[in-house]
Amino acid sequence: MELLRSNLSRVRIPEPTNRIYKEECCISFDTPKSEGGLFVDMNSFIAFGKDFVHWNYEKTGNPVYLHIKETQKLVSEDRPSKKPTLLAIGVEGGFDNNDPVYEQSYEIVILPDYVTLPFPWVELPEKVRLAVDAIIMSVGVEKKEQVAAWTADTKIISKHAMELKQLDNGVIVPPSGWKCEKCDKTDNLWLNLTDGSILCGRRNWDGSGGNDHAVNHYGVTKYPLAVKLGTITADLEAADVYSYDEDASVIDPLLAQHLQHFGIDFSSLQKTEMTTAERELDQNTNFDWNRIQESGQEVEPLFGPGYTGLVNLGNSCYLAATMQVVFSTRGFCSRYYLDQGLKVAFDTAPADPTVDLNTQLTKLAHGLLSGKYSIPATKKDDGDASQTTLTAKQEGIPPRMFKSVIAAKHPEFSTMRQQDALEFFLHLIDQVERNNSGNPNFDPARSFKFGIEERLQCSSGKVAYNKRYDYILSLNIPLHKATNKKELEDFQKLKAEKNARGEELSSDEIVRPRVPLMDCLDCFSAPEELHDFYSTALNAKTTAIKTAGLTSFPDYLVLHMRKFVLEAGWVPKKLDVYIDVPDTIDINNMRSKGLQPGEELLPDCAAEDDRLIANEDIVGQLGSMGFQYLHCQKAAISTSNAGVEEAMNWLLNHMNDPDIDEPIGQVQKSAPYIDPSKVDTLISFGFDEEIARKALQASGGDIEKATEWIFNPPSGITNMDTTPSSSGTEVDAALPDGQGRYRLIGLVSHIGTSTHCGHYVAHIYKDGRWVIFNDDKVGVSKNPPIDMGYLYFFERIDG
């Protein structure tokens, strides 16, 4: 007791604003359920596993810890399962799913000799008792962050409800015995409130649900509102009304009147169907991998180093699939696992390692690659709490702290909504590159980085070269290059015949285009005509030919398949297509050679000024929407190549500008606007005003990026000059490079109609076989969906 009293100055009573970690170790995935339990530092309130708590003592000198241990309790088999009523975790009405019940035990531990004192104990100093009580009663940071984002959207009143058109077509809906008018579906049926048609709902991403007849009916008729039959009771507020035009569940204040139009006495109906929100809850509760596993066969589970699953935190499969593939690359494996131990990461971390990206990447790497947590889960034997049995699955590790750090301040990744795996990969690479800016030779993001050079030749014969860096190669899919055209023609005939007879196609009758990956790569390099190109040699608009190539071949080449396109009317559509991907590819023919002997640069390009060069990816996507090429270039430049959305917003706001058709060379003669306050900020850091302006210009006005640009200017820039070199080898000398032969090592596939919904799964080639990583489920892949990839990861073959 005297030892504890002598260290009372190192004990703090938590305040409401303190972040308290008591669910997981900050540098491992140990929890109170782990064999050694968890030790909470009673000064910093950061938690450590048994093998790591002494590191914290050595670093901080904090000796007093609350030791938390959880032991599984034996519960009755017939304990009723609580049905969730709220799309939430860890809150009243949220998910329960009969998880095991644990009993907590506590004790005070004093380092370095691990002196143990019981808790509760009346002899303990009051300060210690108050501190421990506050820690126990508090909600841990881990759970707070998870619960905060799980909320269901509030319904709005439909704009169509008050003046909804209803046809006098004599339709009377019977009180029961409903069936889809287009198929045999008798559940998930929707009554259109305009014409009284009864049709089945949408097909879910996993194949369940309806056959899309209700939404297809809206596509033809534009009748916007439908109510789900089976959800209508005397309590009309509980009825599920959907607006196809507003693409949301809505409120119809006149629902009773609209139902009576079709002879429905709502007061006599009993609720038999789940609403959309309830079905969403049900699908989250009953998510079953067997619905989307390959060939409907059981997957042989795998355990050991490199075979650790990631727990789904709630729509986090985009993160899990991406990180599994990323950590299968040499660069990330070496940087955060082989070459950096947890001790080194912890010792170099700031006071709070939970917010340090380097520490959390190292923690995640060791969790995934060490095999420590890739073991069969255990369960208590019925009737005997002392006996346990191994199961055929692993529990996986929850990447909570990593997600919290990598998503910090990001408006999308910090939510619990589904996200685009491509966008997350690029965000990850950007953050890793920033984190390693002080020592770029150790930056694993460099293994994905390569140069792209675009060559423009106008009708004068003179040329221009634009260069940029990228981490992914985004490829269009040329459907006209499909290799199964005869089968597609036969399928279209069969489809027309069945439609004429009012019959439905079976899933095994559907034929999808098959496009070779090499044709997608050829499209990237193929010559492209650019109309209305302003030639500084001719001082007039003309037609130019654009070609593109790579100035370097990265260690790892990531190919993004543009499966999501915009149709007429800006309607997004996912291409239903297979990509034939070989095990190895050779892209040496895509190497760009730079300015060649005998070529003459366009006048402005021969002595380039400081203006930005439009990102051709942004220009191309805007051009596909119907905007003029020159306007697209201006939009990209004016928004500092920030992205398609920013450029499009600029275009919509500047279409009527008097100088919108002026050549870029004339428009950009004056220096672009730079916020004077940002210039002053950089000057206050001790930088020269000219350098500050150039840095802000090159970084799009971002002070943080501008500071990094000053300390680590791009390799083609010397003396703070933003002029890119005309030699590809000079610009890209610092980038990884080699021969353009690659082998496929992994893919991220997507199931669903949008990148922001559905499910992501990773397949990785490991130890001579394909392995599937589906959140916390890891197993041998019997039939990897290589032709259905969204992102493909290729490793360069050296030698």
Mean pLDDT: 81
> Largest sheet, described in full?
8 strands, mixed
Rg value: 30 Å
What fraction of residues sit in β-strands?
A: 15-25%
Q: Percent of residues in helical segments?
A: 25-40%
Coarse shape: globular
Distance between the termini: 67 Å
Low-pLDDT windows of residues: 86-92, 148-153, 277-293, 605-610, 666-671, 714-732
Q: Given the helix and strand composition, which structural class is it?
A: alpha+beta
Number of helices: 24
Strand runs, count: 29
Quick overview:
This protein is of the alpha+beta class and 799 residues long. Helix content is 26%, strand content 21%. The protein is built from 24 helices and 29 strands.
Task: Describe the model.
The protein is α+β, with helices and mostly antiparallel strands. The chain has 24 helices and 29 strands. The strands form seven sheets. Strands 16, 20, 24, 25, 26, 27, 28 and 29 form an eight-stranded mixed beta sheet that branches. A six-stranded mixed beta sheet has the order 6-11-10-9-7-8, covered by helices on one side. The chain has a five-stranded antiparallel beta sheet with strand order 2-1-3-4-5, with no helix packed on it. Helix 18 crosses helix 19 and helix 22 (689-698) packs across helix 23 (703-711). It is an enzyme of class 3 (hydrolase). Recognizes and hydrolyzes the peptide bond at the C-terminal Gly of ubiquitin. Involved in the processing of poly-ubiquitin precursors as well as that of ubiquitinated proteins. This is Ubiquitin carboxyl-terminal hydrolase. Pfam families: UBA, UCH, zf-UBP, zf-UBP_var.
